[in-house]
Amino acid sequence: MANQLSKTIIKKHNDILEKEKVKLLAQIVELTKDDPFSDPDHASDNAAIDTDVREQVGHDTIEAEIKDLQKRVKDIDAALVKITKGTYGFCEKCSMPIPLARLELVPEARYCIDCEKKLRIM
Predict the structure, then answer these.
(1) CA triple 106-87-93, angle to 5 deg
(2) CA-based nearest residue to 35, from 53, 52, 56
(3) Rounded (10°) CA dihedral 30, 33, 34, 38
(4) How far apart are CA 15 and CA 19, in angstroms?
(5) Domain segments of the chain: what residues?
(6) What are 23-41's pLDDT values in tens digits?
């Protein structure tokens, strides 16, 4: 399975992925700090019910954002492993090359567009 991507493009995507991973990990740290439940006094304060509801909604929102960011980090890690193995740019489902235009938009893409669509339907 010869890679259709030049070494220059792969190096560029590796750099983009590394920078994006650092940025995402920093966002996760910041969101964790902003989580109302991360305050050690949260459990013992006697806030009004509306404050508790706002804190719960804030916590749930931050938790969902962190989960999404962690998934992207996982996908980036998988792409970085594929770069080292020489399999970057190939769909994990059908093994066909992922179009460069897709990789430019989503450098951590694991699937070609057709397989991605099929996976989302399932």
Answers:
(1) 70
(2) 56
(3) 150
(4) 6
(5) 7-90
(6) 999 999 999 888 766 655 5
Q: At residue 101, what is the residue type? A: A
Question: Rounded CA gap, 52 and 59, in Å?
Answer: 10
Q: What is the pLDDT of residues 42-92, one digit of tens each?
A: 444 555 555 555 666 567 888 999 999 999 999 999 999 999 999 999 999
**Would you state the structure tokens that stand for residue 19, as one six-digit string?**
């920078």
Residue 21 and residue 24: Cα distance in Å, rounded?
5
First-residue to last-residue Cα distance in the chain: 28
- The predicted pLDDT at position 39 comes to 57
Question: What DSSP element (H or E) covers 68?
Answer: helix 49-85
Query: Given a cut of 60, is residue 112 above it in pLDDT?
Result: yes
Using an 8 Å Cβ cutoff, are 83 and 11 in contact? no
What pLDDT does residue 42 have?
47
> 3-class SS at 97?
strand
CA separation for the pair 89, 41 (Å, rounded): 48
